[in-house]
């Protein structure tokens, strides 16, 4: 907003709105032409331009005209673009109110149009275009040049997903990352400050050091991980959130067993920034480009085909025959066309990678009538927030032009908490969605739990089978499917399509042919390296897969020679080991790691990185600190006791004992060969090596 002593009048706001809109459309028009276009005098135009430049909404530069007379060129800054969007909303709100008043005067009834800030207005017509945050191509080129002088923030993968959906309208009505007031409203009662329904905090989390260098009102450049500028943002808010409160309110518990809570505490930055975003260009996707659609592209597609009703199916897993039957029934029940809308952004750690899933979706798509069904990929970073996430997904699908949305049993549930119980009830998501359905603007279709009735050779909803006691009901759980894939067992045709099974077997061969990582952890001197060396020799004797040892001392010498022993550097060293091990695992090899790895949070992060590609076997070498000190040939424990070595694990720095490792090895009174053999037996038990 332009800073001045008195609040601008509505007339002044409208003039500024028209000026910014005109300058974006015709940045190099003469002053006379600009004044005529917005309906003001030249004197008034100059006053408006001067105030806009002082407020850094417009950048004015000289240029030579065709008649060699001095001309001016006007470029709307990122702040100006954000102000234009704000003024557009206010302008439309007033115009709707004026229309309502005129309609009431002429007819004696209300118009039926809701105020602009209410969600329902935005989804009255699922085929009409919705607002995006991108500037025009010409303005984007100029903003790229201007942004070269701005402080830059390199976005994380999750932030890139969020920014893309902010810019293309998927997160409409958000105009940027949430302000502190909007954040508090969302966390407490799922509403923005103006009362609009929005269940999920969309914030830009950054480090304390980055936040300290910023001033409120400053513009920053938002770049992807390769340094490509995607947008600019005006920082209007900066605060340190109460993350425990956010976890309890949004996810239902401050429990690190929840992947989003773990991310919140152990990955996300400590400071949040909020402010409007000006989109310059969308993130580049090199995969499945023909399957990726913005909300407006999908709306145009539906408009072209005349699809008035569209039911969306959310999925982050491969589709099997039960899903096909479910979606058929949902579309038939809603008398709608079907949009298969899988998430290909960040999902739950351990999920099948999106490349494999999309190939599976494309194989199944041929099973649907082509004229009734389409598929589009959604680059969303899921939070696995259960009930809140279901409402969020509904709002996003409404923005994409859908009129109906399938809400599943335990929709977007993350699994079990630290007590071994489900985070959310099986129908909590459906109950919350039903409560807000009218505001979401996308009608819910209940998920039916489909099972196969052998005698009738068809799928039926489990709760609609009246003769359960006299028929054979078949079903395969996700856990059972993974077991069959891992062990190379048959997957029956009644459960899945041969094309889907073929794709899954390509990516997830039997465990005996997969790569894996054995990760030893324990105190210095516990025997990790000795056991790891013995294990390496035994595995190499068996043959079949390459084996790589990533011992703590070897890695320190060859991979992390510049690192010290602070917590930050030790974490970085373990993450490097984890990265190398994940690459070895991904390519079918065996990685044996033997660092101290004292922190549970870092070990969990390494596990998640590796389990995306294969098995992770944590082996706790549970030698007591007293025994390690007795064995110490280098005298490190003595130096640590004397204070000559700082931050020494077990003496002056903590060690988080693994709570549930795959294997715990006691070395006191047990020889090395026996310890290594225990690991071999565990690998055989898990099916990773042949017995």
Automatic annotation (TrEMBL):
List the record's Gene Ontology CC terms alphabetically.
Answer: cytoplasm
Which amino acid positions bind ATP, per UniProt?
522-529
Q: Please name the source species.
A: Roseovarius faecimaris
Q: In which pathway does it act?
A: Sulfur metabolism; hydrogen sulfide biosynthesis; sulfite from sulfate: step 2/3
EC main group: transferase
Q: Which reaction does it catalyse?
A: adenosine 5'-phosphosulfate + ATP = 3'-phosphoadenylyl sulfate + ADP + H(+); sulfate + ATP + H(+) = adenosine 5'-phosphosulfate + diphosphate
**Where does the record place the ATP-sulfurylase PUA-like domain?**
131-281
What is the designated name of this protein? Adenylyl-sulfate kinase
Which residue range or ranges hold the Sulphate adenylyltransferase catalytic domain?
Answer: 292-506
């Amino acid at each position: 907003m332009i800073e001045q002593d008195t609040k601008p009048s509505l007339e002044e706001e409208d003039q500024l709105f028209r000026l910014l809109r005109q300058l974006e459309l015709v940045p190099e028009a003469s002053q006379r032409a600009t004044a005529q276009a917005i309906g003001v005098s030249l004197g008034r135009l100059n006053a408006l331009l001067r105030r806009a430049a002082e407020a850094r909404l417009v950048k004015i530069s000289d240029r030579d005209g065709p008649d060699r007379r001095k001309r001016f060129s006007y470029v709307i800054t990122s702040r100006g673009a954000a102000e234009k969007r704000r003024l557009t909303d206010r302008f439309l709100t007033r115009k709707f109110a004026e229309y309502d008043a005129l309609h009431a005067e002429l007819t004696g009834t209300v118009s039926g149009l809701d105020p602009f800030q209410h969600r329902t207005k935005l989804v009255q017509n699922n085929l009409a275009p919705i607002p995006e945050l991108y500037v025009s191509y010409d303005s984007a080129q100029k903003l790229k040049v201007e942004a070269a002088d701005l402080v830059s923030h390199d976005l994380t993968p999750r932030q890139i997903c969020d920014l893309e959906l902010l810019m293309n309208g998927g997160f409409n009505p958000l105009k940027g990352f949430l302000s502190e007031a909007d954040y508090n409203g969302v966390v407490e009662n799922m509403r923005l400050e103006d009362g609009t329904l929005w269940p999920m905090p969309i914030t830009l989390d950054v480090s304390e050091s980055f936040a300290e260098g910023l001033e409120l009102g400053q513009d920053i450049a938002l770049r992807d991980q390769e340094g490509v500028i995607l947008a600019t943002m005006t920082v209007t808010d900066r605060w340190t959130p109460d993350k425990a409160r956010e976890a309890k309110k949004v996810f239902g518990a401050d429990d690190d067993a929840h992947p989003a809570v773990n991310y919140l505490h152990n990955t996300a930055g400590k400071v949040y920034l909020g402010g409007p975003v000006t989109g310059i260009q969308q993130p580049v996707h090199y995969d499945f480009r023909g399957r990726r659609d913005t909300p407006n592209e999908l709306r145009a597609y539906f408009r072209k085909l005349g699809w008035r009703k569209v039911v969306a199916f959310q999925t982050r897993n491969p589709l099997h025959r039960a899903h096909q039957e479910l979606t058929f029934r949902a579309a038939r029940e809603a008398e709608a066309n079907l949009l298969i809308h899988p998430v290909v952004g960040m999902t739950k750690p351990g999920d099948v990678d999106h490349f494999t899933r999309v190939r599976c979706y494309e194989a199944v798509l041929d099973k649907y009538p082509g004229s009734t069904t389409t598929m589009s990929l959604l680059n969303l970073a899921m939070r696995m927030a259960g009930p809140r996430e279901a409402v969020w997904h509904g709002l996003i699908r409404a923005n994409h032009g859908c009129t109906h949305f399938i809400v599943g049993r335990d929709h977007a549930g993350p699994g079990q908490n630290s007590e071994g119980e489900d985070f959310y009830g099986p129908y909590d998501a459906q109950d919350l969605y039903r409560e807000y359905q009218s505001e979401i603007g996308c009608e819910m279709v209940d998920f039916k739990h489909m099972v196969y009735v052998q005698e009738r050779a068809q799928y039926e909803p489990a709760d609609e089978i009246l003769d359960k006691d006299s028929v054979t009901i078949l079903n395969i759980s996700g856990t059972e499917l993974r077991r069959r894939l891992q062990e190379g067992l048959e997957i029956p045709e009644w459960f899945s399509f041969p094309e889907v099974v073929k794709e899954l077997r390509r990516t997830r061969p039997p465990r005996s042919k997969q790569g894996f990582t054995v990760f030893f952890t324990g105190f210095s001197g516990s025997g990790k390296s000795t056991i790891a060396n013995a294990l390496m020799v035994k595995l190499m004797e068996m043959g079949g897969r390459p084996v790589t040892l990533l011992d703590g001392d070897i890695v320190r010498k060859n991979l992390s020679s510049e690192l010290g022993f602070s917590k930050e550097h030790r974490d970085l060293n373990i993450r490097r080991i984890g990265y190398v091990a994940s690459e070895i695992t991904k390519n079918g090899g065996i990685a044996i790691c033997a660092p101290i790895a004292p922190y549970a949070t870092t070990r969990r992060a390494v596990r998640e990185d590796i389990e995306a590609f294969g098995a992770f076997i944590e082996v706790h070498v549970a030698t007591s600190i007293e025994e390690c000190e007795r064995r110490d040939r280098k005298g490190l424990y003595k130096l640590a006791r004397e204070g000559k070595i700082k931050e020494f694990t077990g003496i002056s720095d903590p060690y988080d004992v693994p709570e549930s490792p795959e294997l715990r090895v006691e070395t006191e009174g047990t020889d090395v060969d026996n310890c290594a053999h225990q690991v071999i037996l565990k690998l055989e038990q898990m099916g990773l090596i042949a017995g």
